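LAB NOTEBOOK - FOLDING QUEUE
OPERATOR: T.R.
BATCH SIZE: 2
PURPOSE: Compare the predicted structure-token outputs for two unrelated chains run back to back under identical settings.
PRIORITY: normal
REVIEWER: second-year student, initials M.K.

ITEM 1
FIELD SEQUENCE / FIELD STRUCTURE:
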Amino acid sequence: MAALDHIRVLDLTRVLAGPWCAQTLADFGADVIKIERPGAGDDTRHWGPPYFRTPDGTATREAAYYLAANRNKRSVTVDIGTPEGQRIVSELAAECDVVIENYKVGQLKKYGLDYASLKAIRPDIIYCSITGFGQDGPYAARAGYDFIVQGLGGFMSITGEADGGLGGGPQKAGVAIADLMTGMYATTAVLTALAHRERTGEGQYIDMALLDVQVAMLANVGANFLASGEVPRRWGNAHANIVPYQSFEASDGWIIVAVGNDGQFRKFVQIGEREELAEDERFATNPARVRHRDTLVPILADMVRTRTRHQWIALLEDAGVPCGPINDLAEVFDNEQVVARGMRVEIDHSLGGAVSLVRNPIRMSATPPEARLAPPLLGEHTEHVLKNLLGYDDSALERLRAAAVI
């Protein structure tokens, strides 16, 4: 029995933040019905290459970006711009516990699919809206994009190489972290609302904003600023308060060395055959190393270049000095720990063969998440859902198809 197999979710989202939330709920057993535009679907279906390939090597129209956020769902195509489409989605909402949407503020009201309209149909509905800037405030009407939010929310001001250095300047993250973390916060909010409803019978409205989440994600850095009033600077892969605690280039690639105390520093330079550095008063203690980092780090960089990544990691791990490689994704999915934890999963796809996806990372003893269904083809479940959930017959479906409603 899956933890959420009694919950049905109507997914009116696209791209990443909303689909990520809905996929997480689906991983735990929720029946997620994804509503998509007939003939087009979620924007990310077309964000390729790469695309899923069948066993004979044929590229499909299923982009890897779309596959990443839509497993375990059922796809139903409905044109909500038509009155009949709006009626269908309203009928589906009446059969669902949760609605998740990421339309612009107020856009769904004109379709009768806003919270107030659906609450009138199902009073205990849980309705989660995801936008760039929230339902109120001076930016509410703006479209929200992860990249813009990373900049606006301060993340890029603390990410990237230091000003004045090689490649210095603000840098976004390599993945859409504001989208992904908003999806995760939204999941928490939905689960909390479900727990509240189980105790009280009361549904509720959830207002999630990418900018709010990005500001919250500043965590200790944000708290440091609020406590001190000092605007933090970028340190790249270095640490503001610990030296050496950064990346170094070995003879064949990059490694991370995270020296946490003076004893570990001594071991590090002994392995590098530069024992005298631990005796130098400029480098003997961490406060001294922080003050003289501009002198010390180039010396250490030259030292690290004398060995390979594998040699350094083996020697440092044996000595108890925290370290690790900077892997590319081929190395990540070949890593013995990643393999042992089963982070790559294969799911049979309706087009043939299996699609490779990343496993939900949550481990639970009684109700673990499960990758049951491959991301659906566009409209793959339209007929089944409308027949079995809403009672539509073949003639009704044919009429709706002819009118391009589904």
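ITEM 2
FIELD SEQUENCE / FIELD STRUCTURE:
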Amino acid sequence: MNYPELYILRHGQTEWNLEGRMQGELNSPLTAQGQLEAAHQGAILAQCDLQGFAFLSSPQGRAVQTAGIALGNLAETIRTDDRLREIGVGDWSGLLRDTLPLPDAEDPYMAQYEVAPNGEGLAAVKARCYAFLQELKGPAVLVTHGVTGRTLREILAGTDAIQGTTIHGGQGYVYHLKNGSQKLLS
């Protein structure tokens, strides 16, 4: 399928990112570094031609806060879409990541999301990302989260788009996706 041109941003560093906590559906505010990362993303986007682009954000506070900083001078309207929210981690919400079981897997940190009790699971995230992309009518700037953004990038540009990335990657960067390829803007 041919998808519209996108710029994908991950929210800036949060207090819970700094502490190593699983956030999922819960929220913590951006740190000072996270605010600087969001401002840096805004500076990157200010150099891009965004005429005709829609601006969409996850409704979760950390993404909305990032969108306000990064897009506040660029977008007349920023809409939220629940499908851009972060993966639900169920009973592990708010817990320190290093206190949780680490599955024996190629990417044990991503595997944690799959085994989180009462969590959403990666297949469900992929399904809602596909649904979101199917309904997208034109080019857009998206402010989302680590796992959700990674899933969107994999759908749009294949597994090469996520090779070498970490679960914490992407804060302060902008991913430009067009015609099935990805470019990291930093």
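REVIEWER COMMENT (ITEM 2): The domain at 6-185 is CATH 3.40.50.1240 (Rossmann fold).
FOLLOW-UP: none requested
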